[in-house]
Specification:
The protein contains 1 helix and 3 strands; from the N terminus they run αβββ. It has a 3-stranded antiparallel β-sheet. Bound molecules: zinc ion (ZN). Zinc ion (ZN) binds next to loops.
Length: about 80
């Protein structure tokens, strides 16, 4: 019985961890994507590759790259706050 409870909590912990990681990477991608523009030079991202693990790859003329794996990130408005 105890083992089952332990397994249940471990499972819940892993799910919580996965959700947290998902939320954090979504926020990170949203900041990088910045509504479709490079945060540094404000030029629009140019698509160059789709990677199975990292998602859609975009690059900028200033050699910065941005990987987006959540499609919803690309529908977010531009974030003007901070650098
Ligand atoms: Zn740039």
């Amino acid at each position: 019985m105890n083992e089952q409870i332990w397994a249940l909590w471990t499972g819940l912990g892993l799910i919580t961890l996965a959700l947290l990681m998902g939320v954090l990477s979504w926020q990170y991608q949203r900041r990088s994507w910045n509504g479709g523009r490079c945060r540094r030079c404000r030029h629009a991202w140019v698509y160059f590759e789709t990677d199975n693990s990292r998602g859609f790859g975009f690059k900028c003329q200033c050699k910065r790259v941005c990987w987006v794996s959540f499609r919803s990130v690309m529908q977010q408005p531009e974030d003007f706050g901070g650098q």
